[in-house]
Amino acid sequence: MIGLIGKKLGMTRQFQENGRSVPVTVIEAGPCVVTQVKSEASDGYTAVQIGFGAKKPKNTPMPMQGHFRKAGTDPLRKVMEFRLEGEHSFKLGDTIGVDILAEAVKVDVTGITKGRGFSGNIKRHGHHRGPAGHGSKNVRMMGSIGMHTFPGRVFPGKAMPGQYGNKQETKKNLTVVAVDQERNLILVKGSVPGHRNGVVYIRPSR
Amino acid sequence: MNIVEKMRATGLREDLPDFNIGDTINVAVRIQEGAKTRIQNFIGAVIARQGTGLEASVTVRKISGGVAVERIFPVESPNVDSITVKKRGRIRRAKLYYLRGRTGRKARIREVRR
Question: Do A91 and A157 sit in the same domain of this protein?
């Protein structure tokens, strides 16, 4: 099933009829343009490539400009491919809106998380802090990284400080709260990876 | 104005009166009890307001049988049936958290004279 490329606009709340407040993320999903249709005959597999968002032609490499010209669209910020099974009715240059997600109950949203730079264990791995008083010096330090002569090495995957964020992540099974086909908006319950105006991919959950 | 800001600012209820921090208000809260709904009044002083538009909330404090009770109401919630202003208070701070440490005469809020 095909998904969409969108832009995270921000968060707000919605009230249900029973007065319950639902935190929602507003995503502008589409209009996306079909920029390439891959078929068994031409590429060995079936897929649809879609693009989203405006980009200045002067910032677009010539080969990409030609690629977009073929689809009859202005240069787009992001393109992405969705594998499809069997027959479909997508044609080059088609515009896709949120209506394809109108019936989705749950969606998966992928985005690039906010970059937090080189972070320590407390922020990066949720470790606890050491004591701050009584002459303690390990307030935010990481503690022991292993045992002794045996095993004589640090286990792979040991939680240590390092780059945190700015990494692709997917949040699965987010409830769709509302779909606004007029403005191409989709409201999902809860948060979504990335900063505001960041690009996100939305797919119906399996 | 971007779309999210617009969503926050549209469709807001207009039946609520203007009230400020320091005012004594009556919040009529809708309470669901099984199949029935009834309305419970919560009368107290506004000690803080937070957020704007859809996300606005108000903290109301009252002394109930010698026990201080604070409730935070999402102003735009459909469960808030109505809000009425009982008294206007004269205060010099945006948040009246100092009331929490006080009781009796010291915990009073001066009323606005007109």
Answer: no
